[in-house]
């Protein structure tokens, strides 16, 4: 067999030796966290931008800077279902099937290869862990020992395993040192071989190269065997540890659910006790009385904000309320429904309906119930009270500025129910009403009435035994623009507090529904709100940032500043209208750099932020129930004794909730035609009753429970509740109600 030439043999062996012995930074093992800078494609305007990437536990996340790691993650992709592809020397792509795709670029080919290796290892582990978590045939006991002896045995087992794994890691380190040593020696021999001519010394040099190559091969095999042993040992014990960890997680979840149920039960019992019992003086508890004085050990060290102390029994407010129950009469709180029938999956071509409606007002477009949700606009208006506790807390505040923070939070909370609610509520018929009586379990009750049809306007009045009154009149102006739908609420909202006589007013922002024709519907809120305390001059300016693809801010961001009558800032609010809000007390303010619009920014130095509001989680299966909240699920629940004009009695809305949409569409057309007939008859009667000089108003309807008044405090004109509804309900007398259904 002919020998290869010395130069050819030398070049081949040298190439292999260089590849095997080149020193590199260690590639992370599957359990490690790998971090570094990569360039990520953003858009055609900004191109590739430098981002900080973190690979951990099978997840690849990125941030704008390292400082963002503690609070703001810009995106995360799960490698278990991801595909990793190399484009060229520095570029590679990670995609999970279309929902997320990262186009990335490393600073060099070596850096790209390190990331590819780390990603492949992490992906392999994530896939393996996912498969093992689905495997039910493991002999590991389902529940670990709970006794002290069992826990001690498990600790000894873990320590023994860790020692074994540690020894395997030392073996790997030793093999690594030997590979570097023998690889360097082999490389030197190959370099010497290049300078030798064919002659007497050729055989000796070839023998040295062969010997060192053999040592390198033996060391490499030892490294491979050590890696195999380490991997096998780690896999065997990792599966058992994963099962044990899952058991601990399940136990923690069960414990949290139990605590949550106990908290809810305690809350219901407390509300039932307060709403149904008045204790006479002989029932006073000396223990509770002494505690009311305050114990120094129970006080919060941070007394930055001060709330008036709540009376445990609220005897005065209940005793002074003529509608409160008699002493010691207990009635159970009504159990309300937690589910409605699932939304049917009916297909309808929206473009065939909307193509001729561009530029028209939404209320004048004949829409089938396929695009509705089984609630009326009056019920949607009543949903503003979902977070009534914020007004309860505001009523107890001694500081008007702190009270302003709670009122502002209540204002923002009313939008949290809209984030997934893309269905259109039913337009109320003229004279339609909706009552929400939660006096017994929540301490408030409210009434809505449709007081005008063109333009459509609804009046709302809510009163609480905790000392606040909410009233609003909303007229919706809406335009369909082809790609999106703009809904502009006109009118005013007012909140009055009995104890302080503080009188607040504000307006709503614009709601925009995007992707009306093509794509997935999504909702955004944008604009500015000024909440004004007309008594003190305090003001809260809220800004709802519109969503922008190019913005660096978090989506649905809301910021606000609470100022006194002199314009001095006292609190700042920040958060999102779909999740939570926080507020902070301002200690100092100063002028900063100019902003994007040329205005000088104000920099506020604040104390640590406190959470003031958080959105309640949606009920289980909400995605199949129009994304209704727990309150929304109860609004159309039939109740006895409500007015015949109540939205719960509306037949087309009830048919839609039951899933009978064809019948609901037919009933909806019947009701709308009936309303048009009644309107024409009312106009004819108005013409007969008026003189030619006076003329006639197109809609001379007089509301049943509201009257239009000028508010001397805010200077606004709105429909105000004139009374009589709840008395009529108590007597069962609804003679004044028209036949609208």
From TrEMBL:
**GO molecular function list:** sterol binding
Protein name, entry field? Oxysterol-binding protein
Q: Which UniProt keywords apply?
A: Coiled coil, Lipid transport, Lipid-binding, Membrane, Phosphoprotein, Transport
- Where does this protein reside within or beyond the cell? Membrane
Heme found in the keyword field: no
Family according to the record: Belongs to the OSBP family.
A GO CC annotation given for this chain: perinuclear endoplasmic reticulum
Give start-end positions of Acidic residues composition bias: 297-306
Q: Where is the PH domain?
A: 31-124
The principal location of this protein is membrane
As recorded in UniProt, coiled-coil segments are 245-272
InterPro entries per record: OSBP_sf, Oxysterol-bd, Oxysterol-bd_CS, PH-like_dom_sf, PH_domain
The record's SUPFAM superfamilies line, in alphabetical order, gives: Oxysterol-binding protein-like, PH domain-like
Please list the GO biological process terms of this entry.
Answer: lipid transport
Q: Please name the Gene3D superfamilies in this protein's record.
A: 2.40.160.120, Pleckstrin-homology domain (PH domain)/Phosphotyrosine-binding domain (PTB)
- Which stretches does UniProt call biased (Basic and acidic residues)? 646-687
Q: How does it sit in the membrane?
A: Peripheral membrane protein
Instruction: Give the residue ranges for region: Disordered.
Output: 133-153, 280-306, 637-700
């Amino acid at each position: 067999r002919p020998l290869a030439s010395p130069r050819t043999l030398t070049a081949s062996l040298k190439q292999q030796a260089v590849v095997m012995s080149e020193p590199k930074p260690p590639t992370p093992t599957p359990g490690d966290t790998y971090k570094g800078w990569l360039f990520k494609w953003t858009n055609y305007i900004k191109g590739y931008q430098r981002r900080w990437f973190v690979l951990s536990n099978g997840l690849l996340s990125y941030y704008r800077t390292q400082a963002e790691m503690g609070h703001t993650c810009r995106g995360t992709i799960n490698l278990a279902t991801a595909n990793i592809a190399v484009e060229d020397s520095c570029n590679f792509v990670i995609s999970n099937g279309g929902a997320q795709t990262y186009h990335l670029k490393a600073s060099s080919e070596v850096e790209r290869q390190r990331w590819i290796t780390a990603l492949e290892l992490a992906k392999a582990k994530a896939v393996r862990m996912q498969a093992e978590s689905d495997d039910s045939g493991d002999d590991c006991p389902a529940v670990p020992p709970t006794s002290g002896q069992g826990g001690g045995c498990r600790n000894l087992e873990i320590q023994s395993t860790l020692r074994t794994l540690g020894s395997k890691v030392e073996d790997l380190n030793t093999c690594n040192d030997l590979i570097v040593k023998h690889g360097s020696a082999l490389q030197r021999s190959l370099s010497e071989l290049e300078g030798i001519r064919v002659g007497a010394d050729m055989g000796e040099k070839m023998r040295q190269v062969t010997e060192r190559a053999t040592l390198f091969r033996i060391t490499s095999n030892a490294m491979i065997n050590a890696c195999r042993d380490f991997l096998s040992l780690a896999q065997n014990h990792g599966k058992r540890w994963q099962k044990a960890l899952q058991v601990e997680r399940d136990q923690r979840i069960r414990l949290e659910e139990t605590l949550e149920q106990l908290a809810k039960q305690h809350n219901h019992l407390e509300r039932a006790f307060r709403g149904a019992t008045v204790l006479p003086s002989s029932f006073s508890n000396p223990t509770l009385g002494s505690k009311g004085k305050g114990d120094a050990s129970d006080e919060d060290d941070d007394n930055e904000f001060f709330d008036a102390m709540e009376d445990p029994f609220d005897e005065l407010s209940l005793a002074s309320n003529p509608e409160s129950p008699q002493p010691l009469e207990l009635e159970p709180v009504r159990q309300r429904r937690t589910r409605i029938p699932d939304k049917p999956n009916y297909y309808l071509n929206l473009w065939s309906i909307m193509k001729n409606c561009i530029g028209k007002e939404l209320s004048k477009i004949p829409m089938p119930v396929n695009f509705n949700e089984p609630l009326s606009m009056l019920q949607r208006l009543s949903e503003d009270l979902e977070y009534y506790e914020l007004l309860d807390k505001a009523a107890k505040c001694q500081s008007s500025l702190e009270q302003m923070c709670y009122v502002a939070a209540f204002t923002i909370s009313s939008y949290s129910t809209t984030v997934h609610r893309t269905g259109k509520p039913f337009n109320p018929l003229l004279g339609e009403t909706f009552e929400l009586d939660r006096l017994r379990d929540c301490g408030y009750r409210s009434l809505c009435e449709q007081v005008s049809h063109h333009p459509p306007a609804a009046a709302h009045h809510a009163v609480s035994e905790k000392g606040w009154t909410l009233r609003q009149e909303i007229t919706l102006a809406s335009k369909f623009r082809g790609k999106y739908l703009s809904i502009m609420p006109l009118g005013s909202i007012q909140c009055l507090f009995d104890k302080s006589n503080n009188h607040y007013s504000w307006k709503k922002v614009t709601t925009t529904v995007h992707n009306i024709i093509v794509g997935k519907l999504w909702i955004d809120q944008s604009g500015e709100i000024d909440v004004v305390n007309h008594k003190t001059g305090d003001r809260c300016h809220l800004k709802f940032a519109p969503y922008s693809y190019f913005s660096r801010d978090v989506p649905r961001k809301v910021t606000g500043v609470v100022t006194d009558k002199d314009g001095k800032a006292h609190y700042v609010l920040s958060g999102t209208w779909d999740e939570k809000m926080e507020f902070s007390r301002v200690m100092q303010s100063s002028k900063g750099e100019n902003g994007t619009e040329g205005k000088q920014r104000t920099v506020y130095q604040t104390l640590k932020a406190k959470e003031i509001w958080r959105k309640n989680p949606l009920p289980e299966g909400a995605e199949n129930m129009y994304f209704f909240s727990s309150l929304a699920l109860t609004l159309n629940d039939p109740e006895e004794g409500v007015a015949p004009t109540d939205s719960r009695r509306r037949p087309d809305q009830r048919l839609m909730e039951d899933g009978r949409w064809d019948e609901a569409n037919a009933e909806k057309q019947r009701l709308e035609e009936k309303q048009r007939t009644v309107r024409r008859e009312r106009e004819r009667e108005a013409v007969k009753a008026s003189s030619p000089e006076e003329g006639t108003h197109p809609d001379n309807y007089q509301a049943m429970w509201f009257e239009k008044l000028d508010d001397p405090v805010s200077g606004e004109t709105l429909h105000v509740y004139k009374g009589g509804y709840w008395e009529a309900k108590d007597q069962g007398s609804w003679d004044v109600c028209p036949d609208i259904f």
